[in-house]
Amino acid sequence: MREANGTWRKCPKIREPIPVSIGDAEGDYELGEVQLTEALRLSCGEAGFTCVIRVEVRRDMASRTELTILLVNTSPKDSPPLRDTTLYECAVEVNGILTEPFVLESLPDSFRYDRRVPAYGINCGVQLTENNGVRTTDAIVADKPRPKYWSVDDPPPDLTFAKLATDPVRSLTQLVEAHTKWGREIWTASGLDDRSRKGSWSSAMRAQADVAAAEFWAENKRLIDGLELLGSATQLLKAFTLMNRAMSYAANGKYDEWRPFQIGFLLANLSCITSSDNEAEIADVVWFATGGGKTETYLGLLITAALYDRLRGKIAGITAWSRFPLRMLSLQQTQRFADAMAGAERVRREEAISGDPFSVGFLVGQGATPNSISEDPPPGDPDPEDDKMPGRYRVLLKCPFCHEKSITMAFDRRYWRLAHQCSGENCPWPERDLPFYIVDDEIYRFLPTVIVGTLDKAASIAMQGGMRCLVGSPLGVCSEEGHGYTYAPRSKKPNGCLVPGCQGRPVGLASGEELYAPTFRLQDELHLLKDSLGAVDSHYESLLDHLESEVSGRKPKILASSATLTGYERQIRLLYRREARVFPVQGPSSEEGFWTSTSDDLARRYVAVAPRGVTIEYAVDRTVTELQSAVRRLTTEPQAVCAEASIDASWVEQLLSLYGVDVTYGNTLRDLDAVARSLETQVDVDGSLNTASLTGRTDFEDVRATLDRLEKPELAFDDRLHVITASSMMSHGVDIDRLNVMVMLGIPLTAAEFIQATARVGRRWPGLVYVMHKMARERDASVFRSFKKFVQQGDRFVEPIPITRRSRRVLEKTITGLVLARILMVHEPGSRDALTTVNKLRGYFVKNGVTEGAELEAVIRMLGFDSNLDEALRNDLQKWFRRFFENLMDPGGTFKWPSDLSPTGKAMRSLRDVEEEAPILGV
After folding, report:
1. What is the number of other CB atoms lying within 10 angstroms of the CB of residue 425?
2. Which residues contact 674 (CB under 8 A, 6 or more apart)?
3. For the CA atoms of the chain, what is the radius of gyration?
4. Contact 335, 424 (CB under 8 A)
5. How far is CA 821 from CA 392, 570, 706, in A?
6. Greatest pairwise CA separation for the chain in angstroms
7. What integer is the mean pLDDT of 9-25?
8. In which band, very low, low, confident or very high, does the pLDDT at 329 lie, cut at 50, 70 and 90?
9. Which of 173, 201, 245, 267 is 20 to 30 A from 431 via CA?
């Protein structure tokens, strides 16, 4: 209670049992007021506090009795001498009553999950007591266990890189046999019948289990087929063993083996490397909980494919184009890709395998890296005469070959390259420039083995002739040493070489044109491709498929990774016009499976808090203050703190590192701005409080610097970062083991973002997540009342991906780019001339009989608009092409460039360029 001088005094705790005996008739009952009022008076020493237990008896829609038990503060607002009549730290415990649990209706029925909830809290949480009662709690605690990667009784096979680099078949045979044996115990009719009886499954749940069993056995067959293929295909076996050696180089001692599901995915997908059709009509999705190692999983497959390409004669060209929906993702993952391909290049040189060096390209565009470097650049563009220019574009944090922070940047005028270089004395890379390209033109010139970039960049294929390398072969090779591949000639590049002022000439390609096209298009964080971005991308995915088929005569394999599965089949069908297949298949329950099961180790502890009577900013300030104060005691009272926590004092420095950074995660920039202001004045701790921001407004260079400081903290605690304010840009791809504490301001708008954001902490060590609910919002209040289920069954709360490819508005935005890309990639190479003006395009169309109807039909086939549901879209396309060809064939027209012919405006420059722009005028 609050004293007259403004200080607070905590009254002795009281525990008052209130016997309750009521009938089952509907009505309201108030109990224990006299008893509770007297107990409060004795505890506080003052009269004026009163409260009552209210029991409301109702019938639900199934005529079952439903009880609502409330503790109601009946104290008057003003009751001198009391200065505050609020009751704090109250709880209600109910014992001695038989109850029937609620069934969480927001989740669908499933044989894998338990939807039962013992009781719902009203403005509070509920927990079970030891004697099968229920008790309210102010803060709801939900634990997320860390996964266990070998869950069967059989001894695990040796899946170390060293073993699989020498004798993979024996270990993989053991893995496949264990998978088959486990399936015979679980996924047979008798096994499912037994589970059905014990779990009281409905007929629908039993039918679901039968479908899941069929999926499991299909997965099992893919594993068996992959094992047989590995034993029969000599080149594939060699590529696989060399890949394991490459991964050991890339891991650099951080890990030395595969998790079973990772090598299982590789084994199940080996056929897509060797098969003639590349299994192109199926999109394979690797699904695993965040932090499980999805990136390394598909890196292993890409390295195997790249090595196999070299062994089968593809001495140059792109093996995979990996796209990320966010800039932060591409930045974080690029180092992993570089490390992996550097490992592959070391192996290639050790084995004397012919071909270009394995390399990586970073294709994200002008906002982060240059599109090109001109001899006489306009203001704001990279200037080759500026000595400081190269340093502004450093992407790699460390050398991928020696793993040292020895990267320097330089511009090489002879080869016109903006290069990452390693200054390490013991680096195994023998050349000056690292095989890593960040300028768009350099990527087109040198064809990196793997290209990593943002999804948005696909829009450039309508305007940039060099992007032909992403769907087929370049047109030639420049005769000048080090200039690389050539493309369509232009006025400033008459020979098609992208080096300014080049006087060379194009010569023929060293390999067949059909070998240059990417084998894979890889999409990371698939679930982020939704709404307008997903709709626009679906058209451009169809364009990329169409162009690769036209130019190279093949269709690429789609690989994707996702941390959620809800609605993935429909999303794949709409995005890529392919069937979807997921690996690994989920187990028979949320706690058990062959590839993973829950362990006894804690991954994250979630604490749900519902602040009342204070702003959420105040609650965050107080929480951060307590967290920072607690961790700082380690620096002043290490022995005492460790004794209190029953931890050996030798862990002090590591605890300071692992729990000294607090991430405050906000759903809006407005929330984060308010928190950032409060941190400056309201968090009162000893010593400095260093903060940084990771949002969409953070400059590329600042993002990189912040991530570097987080991964490699300063020696002195006072010099380190202590609080990070972060938005959704941090919710994907930030894999830093030192981040283990998060304070979240409200529940994000989607369950997927909640899962992804909170997974940024506790990736290796136990994490702590405080979730501050905004109880005035219906969504937050709803999640709070079933918070444990929300955490434990998070994937089931993920909303189906909202996406369509049948949007007329989207087609209006994409059609120009689709048609211009066909002109640039299909028609122009066959014309032997640059179709850059309307006159040249008209002449080519007339000479070669290219008609309105033929182009219309090609685009309809490209987009798959051939059903009755697509009639309106076909009509829109017909009108568009009619106007386009009218403009093209008008001899008196004033149009100069092919893009001017479009009746719907210019081509999109970014896949996110969907919404109408609103001009902002100064007054």
Report:
1. 8
2. 617
3. 31
4. no
5. 32, 27, 39
6. 102
7. 87
8. low
9. 245
Q: How many C-beta atoms lie closer than 10 Å to residue 622's C-beta?
A: 14
How far apart are the two ends of the chain, measured CA to CA in Å? 54
Stretch 481-501: mean pLDDT:
91
Task: Identify whether the C-beta of residue 655 lies closer than 8 Å to the C-beta of residue 712.
Answer: no
CA distance 346 to 719: 38
Rounded Cα distance between 514 and 553, Å, is 7
Question: For residues 744 and 665, is the Cβ–Cβ distance under 8 A?
Answer: yes
Q: What does the pLDDT read at residue 440?
A: 93
Q: What span, in angstroms and rounded, lies between the C-alpha atoms of 260 and 164?
A: 13
Chain Cα centroid distance, residue 592: 24
The fraction of the chain above a pLDDT of 90, given in percent, is 56
Phi, then psi, of 147 in degrees rounded to 5: -70, 150
Structural element, H or E, at residue 128: strand 125-128
Q: Read out DSSP for 874-905?
A: HHHHHHHHHHHHHHHH-TT----SGGGG-TT-
Confidence of residue 578 (pLDDT cuts 50, 70, 90): very high
Any idea which residue has 């050790």 for tokens?
A: 350
Per-residue pLDDT tens digits for 790-810: 888 877 777 777 888 999 999
Q: Would you say how long the chain is, in residues?
A: 923
Quick: pLDDT tens for 816-833: 999 999 999 999 987 878
What does the mean pLDDT of the chain come to?
89
User: How far is 551 from 317, CA to CA, in rounded Å?
Assistant: 14
The torsion angles phi and psi of 484, rounded to 5 degrees, stand at: 85, -155
| 844 CB-side CA count, 13 A | 19
Q: Residue 334 to residues 169, 256, 395, 444, 688: CA-CA distances in angstroms?
A: 31, 21, 8, 18, 33
Tens of pLDDT, residues 371-394: 899 998 988 889 999 999 999 899
Q: Tell me the Ramachandran region of residue 541: left when phi exceeds 0, alpha when psi lies from -120 to 50, beta otherwise.
A: alpha
Helix, strand, or coil (residue 53): strand
* pLDDT reported for residue 432: 92
**CA–CA dist 277, 272 (Å, integer):** 8
